[in-house]
Specification:
The structure is a homodimer of 151-residue chains. Chain A is an alpha+beta fold. Chain A has six helices and four strands. In chain A, 34% of the residues are buried.
Chain lengths: 151, 151
């Protein structure tokens, strides 16, 4: 018997364990010279890999992959899935920690990409200035790399 | 306007951030020579201290205290509150990660204390053997200390 996850449980678990991440990579094949990769993910120790598959099935999108060492993740990268499934879900089942501010910035980036603004240098600048204000340590690291490499 | 937390959000957040902990300390004033201190807690960075107060208000018990450095915790230690509020809550709104096994062991310990078994050496042995199987690294550390000091 399959046990469904409760929507608010998913919201609470995301407040603890989820990451809204915006990756920015140099890519000369893109018009603006950069590729923007927003990603929502939840990482767990492999002992909870079944839960990652439950989350994938809950959202009806995403993939389960190895993250690092004994850690696995469920991650959603497709803009359509982020815009039509993930973002509306967290609007309806709001985060309660300061992570909600990351989510709101993430949402802005996804909306800009939906409008195709990531294909212009102006759009990329806008996205970078939003991403800069995101709290995640790894995000800050990415921006430092970005600046060091391309700044 | 006060915003209430959703019960399942609290369960999901606990799966990510909560700890069910059983402390065991030597205490010569206790009949069995040991004091058993079960504790449920959620630790957050000080930027989310308001959420800890919301959790305290949600459960209607506990205290908010400094944990370490820039971290604060809401914690519940009173056996009555653990037995009558916390444990029934997580039976009704079940954990989904492997932490649920810690919770079930924690529950056993609280039930043993309610029956007064922690006042006998046999009861303490029973509690120790349950606590030993709990997953938390810090728990294992405590047992090692226990063994080194009193074993």
């Amino acid at each position: 018997m399959k046990r469904e996850l409760e929507p608010f449980w998913v919201s609470g678990f995301t407040d603890g364990e989820g990451t809204f991440y915006v990756g920015i990579n140099k890519n000369t094949e893109m018009t603006a010279g950069f590729q923007v990769l927003p990603e929502f993910r939840i990482v767990q120790h492999e002992k909870d890999i079944k839960l990652l598959y439950k989350l994938k099935s809950f959202f009806g999108c995403g993939v389960v992959r190895k993250n690092h060492d004994t850690r696995y993740e469920v991650r959603i990268r497709k803009i359509e899935h982020l815009a039509k499934i993930i973002i509306p879900f967290f609007i309806k089942h709001p985060l309660q920690t300061q992570k909600k501010h990351d989510f709101l910035k993430f949402r802005k980036v996804v909306l800009l990409i939906e409008k195709g603004e990531h294909l212009t240098r102006d759009g990329i600048d806008k996205i970078l200035s939003i991403a800069k204000k995101m709290n995640r340590k790894e995000k800050l690291r990415t921006i430092e790399n970005f600046k060091n490499k391309f700044g």
